[in-house]
Amino acid sequence: MRLKIFYITLVSLFLLAACNTSDDASPAEQTDVKEMVNEYSAGNFGDEQASITSTELIIQENDEEKRYELPENEFFVSIAPFINQTHPCGDHSLTGCQGELANEDFEITITDADGNVVFDETRNAGNNGFVDLWLPRDQTYQVLVKHDGKTVESEVSTFEEDGTCVTTMQLM
Questions:
Q1: Of the candidates 159, 154, 165, which has an alpha carbon nearest to the alpha carbon of residue 130?
Q2: Distance separating alpha carbons of residues 58 and 50, to the nearest angstrom
Q3: What residues have CB less than 8 Å from 51, skipping those under 6 apart?
Q4: Contacts by 147-151 with C-beta closer than 8 Å and gap 24+?
Q5: What is the CA radius of gyration of the chain?
Q6: Is the pTM of this model over 0.90?
Q7: What are the pLDDT tens digits along the chain (172 aa)?
Q8: 3-state SS string for the chain
Q9: 75 and 136 in contact (C-beta within 8 Å)?
């Protein structure tokens, strides 16, 4: 009788282990959300629609919606500097927002509240006219953008209630 109970217990444990549907995927199995964001932003998508909030990437394909959590310590912000035309925007649509200055290069300097430079690069806006950045969360930054002799300076913050789409930076 003990042997029978032992085998039943062993088989039960094997079945439970084989049917484990835990979300604890190994790092190799986890979705690289930042890479997905880059692909959608670059225009590498089919019929999907993708937007990004302060906490998640949302992909809509047909009637199916998929949500992916963003990195815990990083905040995505997409900036579309403009000269003449812009649009109101809160959360960035990776597959729908279009900035005025597509494929243009911008010199961008970002400093934190203590005056430390956290970003200082020239970036191309790509086909959608937006420059995508990942910044540390829960801070306020000063952003300086330069392009063709024009500049704009603005404040951007990365708190949970903040939007991910900045379309208010007019170059003068």
A1: 165
A2: 6
A3: 57, 58, 91, 92, 93, 94, 95, 96
A4: 147/81, 147/101, 147/104, 147/105, 147/106, 147/107, 147/171, 150/83
A5: 22
A6: no
A7: 554 544 444 444 444 444 443 344 334 334 699 999 999 999 888 888 999 999 999 999 888 999 999 999 999 999 999 999 999 999 999 999 999 999 999 999 999 999 999 999 999 999 999 999 999 999 999 999 999 999 999 999 999 999 999 999 999 9
A8: CHHHHHHHHHHHHHHHHHCCCCCCCCCCCCCCHHHHHHHHHCCCCCCCEEEECCCEEEEEECCEEEEEECCCCEEEEEECCECCCCCCCCCEECCCCCCCCCCCEEEEEEECCCCCEEEEEEEECCCCCCEEEEEECCCEEEEEEEECCEEEEEEEECCCCCCCEECCCECC
A9: yes
* Lookup result for tokens 């812009």: 86
Q: Record the tokens describing residue 64, joined without a space.
A: 């199916």
